[in-house]
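fyi for ur records
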Amino acid sequence: MTDTRPRTAPRSQADRPDGGGPDRGTSVITRTKPKTKRPSLYRVLLLNDDYTPMEFVIHVLERFFQKDREAATRIMRHVHNHGVGECGVYTFEVAETKVTQVMDFARQHQHPLQCVMEKN
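which gave:
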């Protein structure tokens, strides 16, 4: 059997509904690499006082800073002997949260323990 339908010329690219073809303007796509800046880091510090028990400070370091017993004891002794000790270095939001958590926890247990943050 033969095909009796009229034959049409194939569409050129310019005739396409999407407008693709040689008459279409050309453009160059360039990818710009975004310049990301590392976030500022902050040191979280515990300050010594004459009233907060050493065991409480160790507990705070274990609970809020995920220190093992040995590291927590070492930091606590440093705070006791030097007046200040570093608990960790974090981005602003994390450092701020940890300071708030420690201060709230100390107040709940009626201890004057001070926790602060400073730009690294």
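The longest strand covers residues 84-91. thats all i got for now
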